[in-house]
TrEMBL record, chains A, B:
One matching Pfam family: GntR
Name assigned to this protein: GntR family transcriptional regulator
Organism encoding this protein: Ancylobacter mangrovi
Segments forming domain HTH gntR-type: 6-73
PROSITE patterns: HTH_GNTR
Length: 230, 230
DNA sequence: GGCCAATACTGTGCATGCAATTTCGTGAAT
DNA sequence: ATTCACGAAATTGCATGCACAGTATTGGCC
């Protein structure tokens, strides 16, 4: 078919990860090796290796002799993921304030400005994409791939649970305002302020999420951990 | 024979990891699947699964179709690991200052005091062990297993390269003094000071390491990345 | 004599098969 | 009716074997 440069194991790991992240495989789902092997047209061997890799990243849970399931995240664990992500994001902002090159700063400012347009037009899809790009800039701005990778990994991991964050009216403008504080601090080279502003921003996102969970809890029948309909 | 509760794959992963961390398997060593299988008396299958797990943690490097090697860490990458670890440790100290329970604070103070004794007696082995325990207290003090696990993992990963850190004369006392600043800030609930003090402490450790590397570089024949003889 | 190409070989990627354990279904006893 | 025990099916853990990519070696050519 195509480039077979990467092994089946790697392809499987990434495809299964995608299926989990986009909600096709819901948390708690059993990951039957035979089923996955049949589904992707391979034998169980690469499936097993892919599962072990995913288990190490925390995306799935591997229970010896009892099979694998998509990671169950309790409300408490999710809050800890959010807190950890917030701290890492704040650290990235701090280092970005200290380490970004002039070019990086210019691009950051430009992206931020363009997001203002999206807010004005209430373009949620564009804003969501730009938001991801903005945060990615802070990761890259650390000039520290280790930290960047850890933070991005954590963001991916909480991704399935923050899908609807920009749905609430006015949240786009609020998010943009918070970003403004972070961007100004970073561009101004104020590491402490950048840290504080980002921490504030992420904690607000967390609060918004918790409200979402709370409302979902009040409406039984819709699983709070399924962010996307099937 | 022995408790077979954990699978061979897990046992292998942990044994190979130990071998890497204690220097038996030097960075750059080829990890031949047949050899490892024979060495541990299993087939290649669990070896492969263990290798994939280790690759995800960053301990080894898995090059498709070209075999696995113990992770090569260049001087630059090592510095990034140190910086990332420092940031995470500082974050742990910050959260500890905010979240530690009275009991945890008492134990932290007690451990710190007992380390003063070890410094006075110049007991390097005891101090090294206590140092690990002290840092572990900060991880636990965050009350955030996600962050704690990430930080501990990073510390493990740089472990092989900081083995001789307490060798230099006077470093024990210096380390203890730095710890004092962190401990006081945490016990006093001053999150910002705790963060700053820990960051300072870790950056000094990093400097000490870089000096070590520099001196090792000047003495060719002794590999700077082999901390322990085979 | 050095460089490049063809070949043999080593080692990884993956499929398949078997054994052991877990789990599910059935039945009987309390 | 509920619970426990037993047995069957399903599923994981691991071993083995084969095919292909990568590597080393040898021979030929410039």
């Amino acid at each position: 078919m195509s480039d077979d440069r990467q092994t089946r194991t790697e392809k499987l790991a990434s495809e299964i990860a995608d299926a989990i992240l986009d909600g096709t495989l819901a948390p708690g789902s059993r990951l039957d090796e035979h089923m996955l092997a049949a589904r992707y047209g391979t034998s169980r061997t690469p499936v097993r290796e892919a599962l072990r890799q995913l288990a190490t990243t925390g995306l799935i849970e591997l229970r010896p002799r009892r099979g694998a399931i998509v990671a169950q995240v309790t409300s408490d664990e999710l809050e800890m993921l959010f807190v950890a992500m917030g701290e890492l994001e704040a650290t990235c902002a701090r280092l970005s304030a200290m380490s970004m090159t002039p070019i990086e700063r210019r691009r950051l400012g430009a992206l931020y400005d363009s997001m203002g347009e999206m807010v004005a037009q209430d373009d949620v899809p564009a804003y969501t994409a730009a938001n991801t790009a903005l945060h990615a800039m802070f990761y890259a701005g650390t000039h520290n791939p280790v930290l960047a990778e850890m933070t991005a990994g954590l963001r991916r991991r909480v991704g399935p649970f923050r899908r609807a964050q920009f749905r609430a009216p006015g949240r786009l403008a609020l998010s943009h305002a918070e970003h403004g504080a972070v961007v100004r601090a970073v561009l101004g080279g104020d590491a402490t302020a950048a840290h504080a502003a980002m921490l504030h921003h992420v904690s607000l996102v967390e609060d918004a999420f918790e409200q979402l969970v709370a409302t979902a809890m009040e409406a039984p029948g819709s699983s709070p951990h399924r962010a996307k309909a099937g």
